[in-house]
Amino acid sequence: MSAPEHFETLDNISVFRPTGQVSLDQAVQMVASAIAYARDQRIRKLLVVISALCGFDPPSTFARFSLVEEWVRASRGVVRVAFVTRPEMIDSQKFGVTVAANRGLICEVFSSEEEAMVWLHSLK
Question: What is the pTM assigned to this prediction?
Answer without folding.
Answer: 0.94
